[in-house]
Amino acid sequence: MVFSSMFFILVFLVLCYGVYLLAKTMKQKNTVLLVSSLIFYAWGGPALCLLLCLDTFICYIGARIIDTCRDRKSRLAYTWVTVLTCLAILVLFKYTGFFADNFISLFGLDLTAPSIVLPIGISFYTFQLISYVIDVYRAEVKAQKKYWMLLLYASLFHQCIAGPIVRYADVERELEGRDATLPDVSRGFTRFSVGLAKKAVLANGCAAIADTLLAGDTLGTQSSFGIILGVFAYALQLYLDFSAYSDMAIGMGLMVGFHYKENFNYPYVAHSVTDFWRRWHMSLSSFFRDYVYIPLGGNRVSVPKHILNLFIVWALTGFWHGASWNFLLWGIFYFVFLALEKFVLRFKKQPTALTRIPRTLYTLTVVFFGTMLFRFTRLSDFGRAFVGIFGGNGNTFMNMQAQSQFVGNIFFLIVCVLACTPIVPAISRLLEKNPLTKKVGLVISAAAPVILIVLSLLALAGDSYNPFIYFQF
Amino acid sequence: MKNIFNKENTRGFENKTHLIKIISSTAVLCIFAVVGLLFFFRPDYSENEKRNLTEFPKFTFEAFFSGEYFSQISLWYSDTYPLREPMIDANSSIQSIYGNREDQLIIPSGGGDATVENGGAVEQFGGIWIQNDTKTAYEIFYNRKSVNDRYIAAINGAADKLGGAHVYNMVVPLHYTYKLTSEQISQVGASDCVDVVDYIYSGLDDSVTAVDAHSQLMAHRDEYIYYRTDHHWTARGAYYAYVAFCQAKGITPTPLEEYERVEFEGFLGTFYAQSNQNKTLKDNPDYVEAFVPKGTNLLSAVTQSGDETEYAVVYKGAGKYSAANKYLCFIGGDNPVSEIHNEKINNGSSIVVIKESYGNAFVPFLVDSYEYVYIIDYRYFDGSLVDFVSENKIDDVLFLNYISTTSTESKIGQIEGIIE
Question: What is the ipTM for the molecules in this complex?
Fold first, then answer.
């Protein structure tokens, strides 16, 4: 099930939280959440739900054993066994097709690669479970004694399929007991509705623009401006879509008393690529930092080793995003700029008033081309788009299609750009300075969720029928 | 959650706004959820989009385990949501402030031809261009020469097999040929329809008589010969093509003034649904003009479900059809086989029109030129045209297609299918 569907919002969520309200004890509440999370997950294929339960079971047993071991060596050994088993399952389901494809084409074999269904969310819940096992090994958390509580952590529908990657340590206490205070629930509704609108109204609108302008078969003839606008819209879509899922997860968590960490911090206002990655998908970056980069020695090693560590982390980050060469290249692309900033440019941590704008423009340019790499799973398409930006396909700078998309969406795009900047928090801080304007701000914030929910439902109503994809064969 | 309602917590303005926010958001969600439960009001057909809406899936173990069953339920839920159409309508109004939507070019994403289900048949679109100042949507056509060749081969093959009958072929250009400048056409990258028609006609065998509808349509380009909200031509456009057909056959066309004329207001055709209910089109609907044949207005048809039914050749009551369906006033819509017997003519003359929906507006004009007019919609007909022609001793065979068909492999496959 996806968050941005009428069925999720109007049937699943309403029923789930309706029943949750009736539950009296914490155990009942957790049961409601667990059962509904499993239903939520099984909606995408009940068989794959068993895999989630199995993965959790492996980590449950692994962590219990690690917890009871006394000597360091066997603790480490059990940790490796558990983590590698989880990773093997992830690789099997996510990367077999990719490796087989490349193996076949490398050796020119006459075979077809097996097609394995990718279980939704496997990248997210596997990482959550791995972080749990390693944290148990590091004695940062205690092993969970009840299997079903660990399953609740791994499967919780708020974050199971699209993040954020929630650490067990962050929710350990709240799994056992939590309170939803009035301001929390209120903030939860705001976050949820903001996320929903970001996804249903803004991100889906940007997707329509990007898909129109970057359609594979017309890419060679698309105008330069058309490609630039298409990639621009896709960059907006990526952020708005992905951060919207985190917003909704955080919001739904708050409604029942979970406090998840933020996953995005307005990455498109970053002043360096390093800064960008401190603001983009923070739960993934911190996962790689804590469980790969630092164990490898981080920056407390020789420069060549340090560079190698960075390379490993970024190649893995890229590959985590998808089993395709372009994602690997995308990770390495960012590695190059991060290494440049660290070892060559040696940016100051905070920009001065003078360097702020040039640094942001440089960052956005890098991110722009990074987004292109992310978009085109076929490298030939990337090539055509890249050359096309500079008119290398014999294409014009502007054509009708690009112009009509630009003029026809200009106000919409402005709203999307503003949604990527911290303008709303800035305004609300401004309003809070004076008691009267603070009241105005509160009234607006009280009305906003209703408006956003209605707007989102209107936008989602037409989703079941897209004349162009509905009957494509 | 209990302490939400604690008296302590609800004190103060801030807490009041929190409460109002929570209650109002919950209420909105619940209202929409309750509407979703009103399954009696769930529609099963969309007249706007001319398609059956998603049905509630049948349970199978395979679909259950793959998750297909559940994703169908989600799709069914939103596709048949009781307020769906007014909601889409409202959303379309909101989108009109997204920018200056003077002109809109809608080209299918993902590379495939866009398709819309039209009463069961699949129509394909290269794209749609909605021009705001003329309030007109144009179908944009991208030609595929290799598919043209297959079309030519299919028609030549038919002429071979139908040796006894005289075979005619008519390919109808699209609206933009008569309204847009060549700069505009090349701007949107559309193909030149006239070039394509010429190419096809030059490839036809001598045994096939090509009907030059284009010259007649060109001569009347300022009249209302195509709809602005629909991909079809109007009956008036079809009439000029009929004049071209009479010239090719060497007979005299009936003057347009001699027909009884009927008109139906408020037609919103396929482009309206295709553009997700574009507001400019909605505010400027088409009207449907139809001309009632003189000899007879009765037609007997075998419908898609296999029943034998009688229709009017031009249904004068079509004013009560919904906005999306007014083009159905012609020959009862798309039926596999139909027959019109004009008892005022007693020479045994006969024609069969092999057509898609463009033929519907055209056929009524043939009624006064033949004793028997047969109509075969090749998309639904599953018999043999060769047998049909010899059994009914048919004199003339007219293949009538609009230009997109000549680049659409699936449709040409269907034509090939009836002449095997």
Answer: 0.88
Quote the CA–CA distance of A224 and A212 in Å, as a whole number: 14
User: Is the distance from CB of A182 to CB of B3 less than 8 angstroms?
Assistant: yes
Closest CA to A472 of B340, B211, B109: B109
pLDDT tens digits for B188-240? 778 899 999 999 999 999 999 999 999 999 999 999 999 999 999 999 999 99
Contact residues on chain A for B4, CB-CB shorter than 8 A = 180-182, 185
- Maximal CA-CA distance, chain B: 97
Give, for B265, the enclosing helix (H) or strand (E).
strand B260-267
Chain A touched by B390 (CB under 8 Å): no
CB of A327 within 8 A of CB of A374? Answer: yes
Range A305-341 burial, b when 16+ CB lie within 10 A, else e? ebeebbbebbbebbbbbbbbbbbbbbbbbbbebbbeb
Q: How many CA atoms lie within 13 A of B413 on its CB side?
A: 3
**C-beta neighbour count of B159 within 10 angstroms:** 23
Amino acid in position B221: R
Structural domain spans, chain B: 2-37, 144-418
Strand partners, B115: B124
A423: tokens are 């303008």
pLDDT tens-digit readout, B210-222:
999 999 999 999 9
Q: Does the CB of B256 have a partner CB in chain A at under 8 Å?
A: no
Taking the Cβ of residue B71 and every Cβ of chain A, the question of whether any pair is shorter than 8 Å is answered with: yes
Q: Which residues, other chains included, contact A254 with Cβ-Cβ below 8 Å and sequence gap of 6+?
A: A180, A184, A185, A187, A188, A191
Q: What are the φ and ψ backbone dihedral angles of B361, each rounded to 5 degrees? A: -75, -15
Q: What are the backbone dihedrals phi and psi of residue B239, each rounded to the nearest 5 degrees, phi first? A: -60, -45
Beta bridge partners of B209: B168
Could you tell me the maximum CA-CA distance found in chain A, to the nearest angstrom? 74
Residues facing B301 on adjacent strands: B309, B338
pLDDT above 60 for B6: no
Which two three-digit tokens encode residue B377? 């919609």
How does pLDDT run across B92-138, given as a tens digit for each residue?
A: 888 878 876 656 666 553 333 344 433 333 444 567 888 878 889 99
Interface check for B13 against chain A (CB to CB < 8 A): the answer is yes
Site of tokens 């944290």: A135
CA distance A245 to A251: 10
Tokens read off for B221: 């380009």
Q: Before A164, cis peptide (omega within 30)? A: yes
3-state SS, residue A204: helix
Q: Report if pTM > 0.80.
A: no
Q: Check: CB of residue B352 under 8 Å from CB of residue B376.
A: yes
| DSSP tally for chain A: helices H, then strands E | 21, 0
Rounded CA-CA distance B370/B375 in Å is 13
Q: For residues A11-32, give the mean pLDDT.
A: 95
Contact of A200 with A4, CB cutoff 8 Å: yes
| Distance (Å, whole) CA A456 – CA B5 | 29
Please state whether B142 falls in left (phi above 0), alpha (psi between -120 and 50) or beta.
beta
Closest CB to A221: pick one of B36, B84, B189: B189
Is B74 close to A1, i.e. CB distance below 8 A?
yes
- What are the boundaries of each domain within chain A? 6-178, 184-271+350-464
| Short-list A140, A171, A178, A141, CA closest to A153 | A171
CB within 8 Å: B100 and A407 = yes
Residue environment code for A22-49, b if the CB has 16+ CB neighbours within 10 A, otherwise e: eeeeeeebbbbbbebbbbbbbbbbbebb
What token pair was written down for B329? Answer: 């006033």
| Residue that is written with structure tokens 């029928």 in the block | A465
Q: What is the pLDDT of residues B50-108, one digit of tens each?
A: 667 888 889 888 888 888 888 888 888 888 889 888 888 888 888 878 876 656 666 55
- Catalytic, A321? Answer yes
DSSP-H helix ranges across B234-348: 235-249, 270-274, 279-283
